[in-house]
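Budget justification aside, the reviewers requested a transparent look at the raw inputs and outputs of the sequence design task funded under Objective 1. We therefore reproduce one unedited record. The lines immediately below are the structure tokens for a 272-residue chain.
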């Protein structure tokens, strides 16, 4: 398998992008590269002297990766447009290179249902076990990886079937989401084209999906870039570094990118 040049590391910082809490299936390797699965494709991404290269399973499909990494948007220009004080400027500078992935809509929704009251290592473990047990095998660089199981596949299961995941009460929520999507009750492709408020409300009709999970699914799955999920890190940052009653909507069409800059900076410890 040949390495394919994707972009510069300034355009895509693989560490920041994969470690900023938006995805759970890219795993760091000892050499600093990342291996992950997107749809039916497995891949390794690596930063070699400031340039990002990709090695993938199957036939090369650079167009698919350019779409996945949202390469058509100038993130440096967007980041420079955030003009809401010194703190956000520092966040944007620290997070430069983060890109909002165009993830599979169902995978993002299911992953953020799993994320409730959970930490990232445990989320990754539950997601990986879900894929190992119910996804399809992919052979890559001598390893066996697994696709994310479809909603239709998960809809056939019971909470007892998901017991090996150790996902607790979330198992029932995962199955309810899968059944609603498999039955067409919730159409994620349609929601991606709808008004954000309507999309969020539709997702909150799923058992166990509250505002935070819905906002994460809207941003990271449906790619509504102005969505602004609020968790404990964001709430603390807004309280400590923004004016009282600050409205994230004032950040505009790319408020979701600002959210990722704030989240990544707040968790880094640099802002202390």
């Amino acid at each position: 398998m040949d390495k394919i040049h994707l972009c510069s590391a300034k355009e895509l910082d693989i560490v920041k992008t994969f470690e900023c809490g938006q995805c759970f299936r890219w795993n760091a390797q000892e050499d600093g590269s990342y291996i992950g699965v997107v749809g039916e494709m497995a891949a390794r991404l690596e930063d070699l002297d400031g340039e990002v290269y990709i090695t993938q399973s199957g036939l090369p499909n650079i167009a698919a990766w350019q779409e996945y990494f949202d390469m058509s948007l100038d993130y440096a220009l967007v980041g420079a447009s955030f003009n809401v004080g010194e703190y956000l400027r520092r966040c944007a500078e620290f997070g430069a290179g983060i890109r909002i992935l165009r993830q599979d809509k169902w995978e993002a929704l299911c992953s953020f249902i799993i994320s409730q009251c959970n930490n990232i290592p445990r989320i990754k473990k539950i997601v990986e076990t879900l894929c190992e047990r119910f996804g399809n095998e992919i052979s890559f660089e001598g390893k066996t990886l697994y696709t994310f199981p479809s909603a239709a596949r998960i809809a056939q299961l019971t909470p007892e079937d998901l017991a090996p995941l150790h996902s607790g009460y979330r198992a029932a929520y995962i199955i309810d989401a899968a059944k609603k999507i498999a039955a067409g009750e919730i159409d994620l492709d349609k929601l991606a084209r709808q008004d954000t408020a309507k999309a969020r409300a539709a997702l909150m009709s799923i058992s166990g999906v509250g505002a935070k999970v819905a906002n994460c699914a809207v941003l990271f799955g449906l790619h509504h870039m102005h969505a602004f999920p609020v968790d404990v890190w964001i709430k603390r940052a807004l309280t400590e570094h923004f004016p009282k009653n600050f409205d994230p909507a004032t950040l505009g069409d790319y408020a979701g990118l600002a959210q990722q800059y704030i989240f990544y900076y707040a968790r880094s410890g640099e802002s202390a």
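The chain has 13 helices and seven strands. The mean pLDDT is 94. Computational costs for records of this kind are itemized in the attached budget.
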